Amino acid sequence: MKNTDIIKIRPLRFDDGTFLCSIFKDNQDYYDIFFDSETDPVEWQKRVNRFIQQSAIHHHIIETNNEPIGWLSFIDEEQDYLEIGILVIKAEHLGQGYGTKGLSWLIEKAKAARKRYLLLNVNQSNTRAIAFYRQFGFEICGEEIVPQCNDAVNLAQYKMKLTL
Sheet harboring 139-147: ordered strands across? Predict the structure, then answer.
């Protein structure tokens, strides 16, 4: 991230579907959840659209200089916590501060809504993400096997919590 970069977090639009498919293709964790080698591009788009239309989930795009480079989602129900669903940055933008910007935005959103804590699940094999969340003070508070959209995949995940 350069000092001149303009970073914006905005709600997801219908025309963001192609970008979301590209994120899935770039990120093995998400690719394995939604797709297999037999999935054609039209089916990819349908699966992504079904996923983003789940009403309880709020989806946002992280942009720099009007280019989408990341995706975050959260669930904000009538509870004392906010649950992070997805925080993913395109591979070529990793390590440049965009994930930090997105997570900081979510933390501020949770504080403004008077939430007591944030929750998230992270794949146990994703050591980079686990280290990233720990830098913010997240702690592992449980483990679970989570069935995914692609019935062939069940992921071992840590549940992590940040007290606000």
Answer: 7-11, 57-64, 67-75, 81-89, 117-123, 154-163, 139-147
